Amino acid sequence: MTANSRLCLLVLAAASAAAQDSLFVESAECSLCHTRLGEKSQLGQYTLWKGSVMAHAGRDPYWQAKTAEEIKQNPAIAKVVEEKCHRCHTPQRKPQANDGVGCTACHLIEDKGLGTPASFTGGLEINKEHLAYGPHKDAFVNPMIMHVGLTPAYGAHMQKSELCATCHTVITPTVDASGKVLGEFIEQAAYLEWKASSFGSGDMTCQSCHVPLADNPKQHYIAHNPMGRTFPPTSPRQPFGIHRFAGANFSLPVLLGSADSSMAERAHDMLSSATAIEVKPAWKDGVLEASVTLTNLTGHKLPTGFPSRRMWLDFEVLDASGKTVFRSGGEPQEPQLHHAVIDSSSKVQIYESEMADPAGRPTTALLRAASYLKDNRILPDGFDAAKAPAGIHPAGVAGDADFLPGSDTTLYRVAGLAPGSYTIRVRALYENIKPSHRGVLSPAQVKALAALAPVVLAEATAQTVRGVTAQKIQRSLASR
Length: 480
Ligand code: HEC
Ligand code: HEC
Ligand code: HEC
Ligand code: HEC
Ligand code: HEC
Known about the structure:
By secondary structure, the protein is of the alpha+beta class. The chain has two domains: 3-167 and 212-245, no CATH class; 268-475, no CATH class. Helices cover 25% and strands 22% of the residues. The strands form four sheets. Strands 7, 8, 10, 11, 12, 14 and 15 form a seven-stranded antiparallel sheet that branches. Strand 5 and strand 6 (287-296) form a beta hairpin. The longest helix is centred in the first third of the chain and has 19 residues, at 3-21.
């Protein structure tokens, strides 16, 4: 990129930011009527949103540390980097930057170009007519116009994945140390992954899992007056989307020093529905051969999102006395290649993405990343590579015939086990910030994370007896 086009980028970014600033409203102003939804209901949009990860996107200590580091590594384009990193994490910018992804950052998005490349990487357009879009066609508009200057309005796009695609498709430039742009890199692609899967042509949207509909919508008014009573002209409404926005981030509350357990609980709930695990033991020439299949139950890759995430298998064989005789897992410190077969305890199956710089060296720097050295994250159901850009195709899995859309199977081969009965225990573990990505954090933050156990997504056990013993039993039975 020339100095001239770099300047252009800068000017464009600044102009669009300033123009959109004045259209947003602080989320606290919505709390007046969108907090108490009936005496018993805990489903107020404001209450739930406030405890979500998105509400903390601009205060997230990991994001702050990473942004500072990216700016430091790219001094020639510091302003561009700063704008880029703020675009989705503090879309409402000043004076409401503390809102993170506030109510109006979603509800004011115009249905324009959604789902097209121009809308990705935060390329959303905020409507200038002061409309707050929602799923209802005949909202009672007066209270909102009076109090916050916004008119509730129907917008079919609020229930489509393309709305979320704006910020959940993160494409970054590959830049060298002098600020020269060498290409671009798809850093996050929850939407593109979803689009290329069986979900992309079905009814399960991002909202289906992340803003789930209330079971009994007949009970739910969508707004209450500041006294907690209903506005006389309104009735309970359907659909009613529960603003949980649960994902996988259970580390953020620890980094924030927050005592509120609800954010971590939401993540634990979500993670417990992410995968199913199956183990099938067999013996071949006296060698234990156990196949472990992980199925992806989410609507995108597992894990999806930021490249610091990882999931791995902790596989153990215990003898009849309960002693571990083989283990592949524990807490691996370094990334590894993908394995089709694991025959030694030094090999661990880690499902993760590993970024490479233009010279093909591993990197964790977002703006140096040019390609993936490895991306063996489990594909969503029905993933069709022909429907996905090359930048999100799996990487480093060649030669593993059972790395398939929706699942992967790992074959564990354990030799040298004496005759006897064994228990196989396998767990799928998950962590938000893997050790190789912790360099930007302070020693105190690293310590706090180290004290946090990985989450167990799923677990399976199987009993097996080494064949020789079974034959012996048969022989002794026959001789009686
Ligand atoms: C990340 C995007 C996002 C944010 C942030 C967000 N909402 Fe929503 N909101 C939605 C979506 C999507 C729906 C539609 C849900 C459905 O019906 O499927 C919705 C629906 C609504 C509705 C209609 C009734 C309902 O609950 O379904 C109201 C009212 C509402 N939101 C208010 C708020 C308020 C107030 C805030 C801030 C405290 C907020 N929203 C934050 C995405 C968002
Ligand atoms: C297009 C929107 C967008 C842009 C631009 C963007 N991010 Fe993000 N970022 C996201 C989303 C969405 C997530 C959540 C992904 C997840 O939960 O896995 C995220 C997550 C993160 C996280 C992980 C936070 C945590 O608590 O684990 C870090 C760190 C981060 N971003 C840093 C940056 C930096 C640095 C930049 C600028 C180079 C940047 N982001 C630009 C959308 C964006
Ligand atoms: C003074 C009360 C009040 C305040 C403050 C308020 N709202 Fe509302 N909101 C309402 C009422 C009343 C409705 C319509 C209820 C109905 O018709 O059932 C509504 C409906 C909505 C809808 C649904 C629109 C649709 O057509 O589906 C959205 C979205 C919404 N509000 C967002 C917000 C946001 C964002 C804020 C803060 C910027 C906010 N509201 C502040 C009272 C309020
Ligand atoms: C079938 C249900 C389902 C659908 C559909 C779905 N998700 Fe998810 N999502 C999950 C589950 C379960 C998790 C937790 C496991 C994980 O991190 O992949 C998750 C995690 C996430 C995370 C958090 C990742 C992190 O690192 O913290 C983000 C962001 C996300 N989804 C965005 C989306 C977007 C955007 C869409 C639509 C394009 C979508 N999801 C569609 C189930 C779903
Ligand atoms: C204006 C940008 C923006 C929009 C629009 C947006 N998101 Fe996000 N979302 C973010 C950012 C930024 C983060 C990461 C915050 C962090 O980790 O610091 C995030 C995080 C999340 C997470 C992760 C929570 C966790 O625990 O890991 C989920 C789930 C999610 N968003 C769902 C959605 C869904 C569903 C939609 C559409 C209805 C949506 N988002 C629309 C910017 C956005």
